[in-house]
Structures are given as structure tokens and as C-alpha cells.
Design goal:
Blueprint: E1 2-5, E2 13-19, E3 22-29, E4 32-37, E5 80-81, E6 83-86, E7 89-92
Antiparallel strand pairs: 1-7, 2-3, 3-4, 4-5, 6-7
Length: 93
């Protein structure tokens, strides 16, 4: 599923997109893209795309872009989505 043009996301920033009815946080880090669930499991708010360190702005837990696992509490995680750059576009697979 095409999300947006790669250049529409500023380097070292994130945006939220609706993918199959789920909010997904998409991050551009240099020439790579990562996608995790946008919902903060601690507060229930869809806010994870707002941080670059991928820390919830609500309670400040940090989440891995690779695994979705919470750094402070490994028993909690957010979904991870396969993302890629195809031509000039970002896609979620």
C-alpha cells in the first residue's frame, strides 16, 4: 500500500497514516523507513509518530523501531509493519 512520497517525510521525523483501519507511525531515518503502531499502549493515545526517539509524549516510554518492544517494560510492545521505499514512494507491505 502506497503511503506517500519518500520526500514528503522530513529526515529524522515521523508521520501517522491510516493503514487498513489502523494508525501506523512511519519514521524516516536517513535513507531508511520504519513503521510501528501509532497507539501508545500505556496511555491509549495515538501519539507515537510525534516523537523521533519513539518515546510516547504521554508517559515517556521508549519503543524500538525494529521490534516494537518497550525499552522500559519488555512485556509491552506495539505492532511493527514492514515498510520500504519503492522508487520515490514509501510503502507498507
Amino acid at each position: 500500500m502506497r503511503i506517500c512520497s519518500f520526500n514528503q517525510i522530513l529526515n529524522n521525523s515521523g508521520v501517522a497514516a491510516l493503514v487498513g483501519g489502523e494508525q501506523v507511525a512511519i519514521f524516516r531515518v536517513d535513507q531508511e523507513v520504519y513503521a510501528i503502531g501509532n497507539r501508545d499502549p500505556f496511555s491509549g493515545a495515538n501519539v507515537l509518530a510525534r516523537g523521533m526517539v519513539v518515546a510516547s509524549p504521554v508517559y515517556k516510554q521508549h519503543f524500538s523501531l525494529l521490534t516494537g518492544r518497550c525499552i522500559e517494560d519488555p512485556s509491552v510492545s506495539v505492532p511493527v509493519y514492514r515498510a520500504r521505499v519503492e522508487g520515490a514512494d514509501i510503502q507498507i507491505l
